[in-house]
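Hello Y.,

Per our agreement to keep a running log of every chain we model this quarter, I'm adding this entry. I've kept the format consistent with earlier entries: sequence first, then predicted structure.
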Amino acid sequence: MLTNKPNEIALEELIKLSGRYLSYQEFVELIPSSLSDQINSNIYYTICEGNNRGKTIRKLKKEFDRADKEFKSRRQRIINMLSFEFEENE
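Predicted structure for the entry above:
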């Protein structure tokens, strides 16, 4: 997106990483104004290649939901095992 100068390549990598966790507005508030004048939202999101904050949030939420469901399932199995074990022994 930018040229192939080493500093611009590093900046592109920084934008890719930032794009996963920060909106464009948050990003420009954290960088020097000299850079924010050069990087508009189209450039920012093009460099991010679709790996943006919203996508990261959705992915983490899905992972949490799966982990939460798995935890509840395993917890219920333990409760059932304990219930069965102690009912038999009474």
